[in-house]
Amino acid sequence: MAHIDDFGTQKSNLEYIQTAMDAPMLEKEHELNLARRWRDDEDEKALHEMVSSYTRLVIAMAAKFKNYGLPMGDLIQEGNIGLMQAANRFDPERDFRFSTYASWWIRASIQDYVLRNWSIVRTGTTAAQKSLFFNLRRLRSKIERANGEEGLKPEDRQKIADKLKVKVRDVESMEGRLYSADQSLNTKIGENGEDDWQSLLSDEGPNPEDVVTFMKDSQTRSAWLNKALGSLNEREERIIRERHLTDETVTLESLGKVLGVSKERVRQLESRAMDKLKSSLKETTKTINIHDFL
Questions:
Q1: N- or C-end of the chain: fewer Cβ atoms within 10 A?
Q2: Measured between alpha carbons, how far is 72 from 78 in angstroms, rounded to an integer?
Q3: What is the count of structural domains for the chain?
Q4: Is the predicted pLDDT of residue 80 greater than 70, yes or no?
């Protein structure tokens, strides 16, 4: 559904558009001179004159995207951001018009805004999906006019997929998203229903019983591990803790420097300490695996 601005917003937008359309067009040499003044001297007056003259280009570009249901004023402002980016990157020495260069930046900025705000679900994360999003409506309308009927047939979707170099299932998925509105999970089911769609969603997390069991098992395992660590000497315990019981594992070499021994010696001490832990834990339970703890 298209966004409809209130009267005050419509009036402000109209005044802005009229002001932009009244701005004088620039001759090529004057335009390049303004670009050089901004690039070389950061002359803000030159920047303002150049940008103001091409705000009409932003408005024309924004109008092409008004059917996506977003506020026209927002589309224009996003286009203005693209226009400013173009002004900062424009090289007047390449001897082509600023309007040609700025068009790409304006379109890219508006398209990015549409993709971010058209739906609460992220749309168009790849170049192919973006192309599909912005071309599907046009291609569908063209095919429907040719067929004389609404809706796409399987062979029509295949044609679109081939033209845009995407998979048919991507066309089907995007078609479903473009022609159906977002719905709240709190929407009631049926006219007099008490349940909402959210209540039908399954919880994939652990149930309370599993959580309690896991906590109890974790406490038991921690007690067993602490008891086993008590069988190690101070240096062995430090090696095990810093090599296996910290978020950031310490390397053998750095640990060797701290302990004043070689990297190979630290490896030997680690291996011996692991054997001690394994033996100690086996005394507690016959089915334990050392890797369940470390």
A1: N
A2: 10
A3: 3
A4: yes
